[in-house]
Amino acid sequence: MNRIIAILVFTGVPLVILGTILNWSDIFMFVISSLSIIGLAGYIGRATESLAIVSGPRIGGLLNATFGNAVELLISIFTLKAGMVGIVLASLTGSVLGNLLLVLGLSFFAGGIKHKRQKFSLHDAQYNSGLLIFAIIVAFVIPEVFSMSMDTKTTLNLSIGISVILIAIYLAGLFFKLVTHRGVFSASDDSGHELEKPEWTKKKSILILFIATMAVAFVSERLVHTFETIGEQFGWTELFIGVIIVAIVGNAAEHVSAITMAVKNRVDVSVEIAVGSTLQVAMFVAPVLVLISLFMPVQMALVFTIPELVAMITATLLVINLSNDGESNWFEGLILFSAYLIMGIGFYLL
Amino acid sequence: MNRIIAILVFTGVPLVILGTILNWSDIFMFVISSLSIIGLAGYIGRATESLAIVSGPRIGGLLNATFGNAVELLISIFTLKAGMVGIVLASLTGSVLGNLLLVLGLSFFAGGIKHKRQKFSLHDAQYNSGLLIFAIIVAFVIPEVFSMSMDTKTTLNLSIGISVILIAIYLAGLFFKLVTHRGVFSASDDSGHELEKPEWTKKKSILILFIATMAVAFVSERLVHTFETIGEQFGWTELFIGVIIVAIVGNAAEHVSAITMAVKNRVDVSVEIAVGSTLQVAMFVAPVLVLISLFMPVQMALVFTIPELVAMITATLLVINLSNDGESNWFEGLILFSAYLIMGIGFYLL
Amino acid sequence: MNRIIAILVFTGVPLVILGTILNWSDIFMFVISSLSIIGLAGYIGRATESLAIVSGPRIGGLLNATFGNAVELLISIFTLKAGMVGIVLASLTGSVLGNLLLVLGLSFFAGGIKHKRQKFSLHDAQYNSGLLIFAIIVAFVIPEVFSMSMDTKTTLNLSIGISVILIAIYLAGLFFKLVTHRGVFSASDDSGHELEKPEWTKKKSILILFIATMAVAFVSERLVHTFETIGEQFGWTELFIGVIIVAIVGNAAEHVSAITMAVKNRVDVSVEIAVGSTLQVAMFVAPVLVLISLFMPVQMALVFTIPELVAMITATLLVINLSNDGESNWFEGLILFSAYLIMGIGFYLL
């Protein structure tokens, strides 16, 4: 696994640089930038994990929260800069769908093939269900529905208000989970950590984190500029590129670790990664992008298209109802994956 | 009970044949065809049950799954052949509403009048809730919403894709429940079976199944041709005929057995019948009809009207939230029945 | 607390009378009528409670049910009489949102600051979730969606039908909770009552109840007539006045008692007040107002605006999913309050 990541990065990034200078074709650049980003995301993930072990669960949680969606955030900022607001919203949708349906579905399926029934904390699942309803259903549906009879400026004001509230709640949630109610949550993450040895030292981790993040920023900018050509060449809509392609590239690292954990019969960690990442996208990445867009040529309101919104709502209700028994099996995984497939076909045909 | 069924069939079917030859009025034909089909459904149910006892739970489950909605499927095929796509979709809606609200409502009510609190498997209820969300909310809402900005051909392609996925998941679900995870589900069905004696021999059951199915096919064709006149005479819309009338005729047999079981304090079986039948309609009957319609003069996309869709979604959420405690009582039954009544009035006035 | 209530009433009501005679400005009248009503609601609440203790839990429950939303009902009747149907529907929305998000949110938050985790009956929460889905989602969504393709007269007929059903179910629910299934519900209310001494005698309670209700009726009429000027002066829409202002004035008494109980670590009572009041508004106050409006110059159909409906649906789903673990803490309170804030901003900007 680690070798693949190394190959992706050490052949991918140089090729991207070379391609930029030599002005290679967009399709080739699209492929090598995507692969490089996936590799770099692997390095960011490993560096964050090493740092988390060294600095204890509190700071570790914060680090995970901050760098977990760093790749996604960087790609989105460059896409915003290029004025492609539609793709940014679509890739946020894709992150939510990808985490809730694809990552969780493949984790449940792969884990369920090897182990008959896998258990995760019912308490955490119930806690998460409330947050998912708040972040996806309340915070995303309200601006959508209310904006229907608002002008652009008022819609943007509403989006800004909601974004500030979402970020505040996200920080309050970290405070809740890491300070006031630490012991309440499943000890699954802590139990192993005490015995675990970090892969890299603190210094090395920070250095790698810094370099990899810079590299992602550079490659993302290249990737974003291929979208237009890619869309024309393959007949893909902006929506499809955002929801499916960008989301898969931007979340590849999480996908791999969630599925690996499920096969190791640690499906509780898979759930934590998938749902945690979804909540982070909805309550942190999305509102931060709204605020950043205020300094960009084109502002982004928190208003998804109706198909995007409906896909996210139905995915949320499905996950909540499939995980309300604190157990998973291969068939539940298949259902989640099928839901992703159905939505994928829908976005492709749209 | 069995005597009534016999009378319905042995006076009903000959009258339908006579009426067809002598060209009787559509209203009279509507009444006698409906009653004959209810009777024949009773025979199909009993033959399936006898076969299930003889062949053990696995094949029995498969038989139930296949013949359970045979009547509904046959009526729908003839309605499709007559080009009345709207009535087919409405009768699918009606099956879902009828099973979830009317059958379950009357079962909870009748059972709850006799027994203060009735318990059913919470585990099965939670398993079913995930499937209901997938089948009704994901699979039906996505084509509806996405089709709003699609042309007819693309909508049909999306419907075909979703139908294939739904049938695959339905078969995978049978495999899951009957093969890989047999012991996991409540033993309620098995417990009694070992002591139960089949009503008919295997040979007799197959013969009756064959003849009754043929007869249903014949009578259904007659029934379908009365719809137009009935609608005009009584001022009923296509939607009302499909949602209320066809759904009640097509599911009468299930209704009777579910309520009977609830009164016998076996409300777990009532839930299994009502929810199982709903899932079968949504994940098997509906997609099969979409695929069959490809060979018909008029193709059917999986696109319901907004009122139909909203009625199904709200009914699903109501049932999931009423059954999340694994208990039922007369008041919960009354609530389900009232929801059916509210929707019935709505469809009547529409 | 009681002193504040006394001051509000004994300076407020005379000022309202004086102001009516001397024709004071609408803004001043709006403020003093609002404060008087809040004080009078406090008296009604205390009189109902005293009566409930004297007359035992059954009659007590009935009294609470009848006078609990008396203030709201009276304000609404006078608003209806003034032909402002939009404000009535908005204030019903505001009651639902206020109870589910503001009252429950502040209760969870205030209680959670003092006590780490607070427990309430999971059984009651599950029972309530089914009723909330029925009352808010089935009964309010169906007329909304179906009315889209109905004329005004048919919409009103549908509303009347649904209203009659809702009132019947509400009465059946009282019968269920107070007669057939008394022991099933959490004994929280009864446990204390036996030791509790009523504040006032039966005679005094009835007298106060009668006078305070009369006074509320008088002041409400004054209050209603200030709405138009208030809207113009502050730039508030009809929707905002109804959803936020009227709802807060009409429910102030419940707000205070729910939060007080939560701080006393009796969050089960807070949940009962907030959810009970919501159900009463949806299943009793709203349908009664529809029926009363038939004798008014302008009839009121049970058709909310889309933003109102969506706000109520999302609030309901949020509360159900946050309370499905039978526990509360400050962070859950914050989430509920944030949802209220998001919707409040939305209604303000609309």
Describe this protein with a few key phrases.
homotrimer, 350 residues, A middle domain of Talin 1
Layout of SSEs?
The structure is a homotrimer of 350-residue chains.
Chain A: H1 2-22, H2 26-67, H3 70-81, H4 85-114, E1 118-119, H5 122-147, H6 152-180, H7 188-193, H8 202-224, H9 227-234, H10 238-263, H11 267-293, H12 306-322, E2 327-328, H13 330-349
Helix pairs in contact in A: 1-2, 2-8, 2-10, 3-4, 3-8, 3-11, 4-10, 4-11, 4-12, 4-13, 5-6, 5-11, 5-12, 6-11, 10-11, 12-13
Keywords (chains A, B, C): Antiport, Calcium, Calcium transport, Ion transport, Membrane, Transmembrane, Transmembrane helix, Transport
Function (chains A, B, C): Ca(+)/H(+) antiporter that extrudes calcium in exchange for external protons.
Membrane topology (chains A, B, C): Multi-pass membrane protein
Question: Would you kindly provide a written description of the structure presented here, covering whatever features stand out?
Answer:
Chains A, B, C: This is Ca(2+)/H(+) antiporter. Chains A, B, C: It is a multi-pass membrane protein. Chains A, B, C: It is found in: Endomembrane system. Chains A, B, C: InterPro entries: CaH_exchang, CAX-like, NaCa_Exmemb, NCX_ion-bd_dom_sf. With 350 residues, chain A is mainly alpha-helical. Chain A has one domain: NCX, central ion-binding region (A middle domain of Talin 1). Chain A is 82% helix and 1% strand. The relative contact order of chain A is 0.21. Chains in contact: A-B, A-C, B-C. Chains A and B meet through helix 12 and helix 13 of A and helix 5 and helix 6 of B.
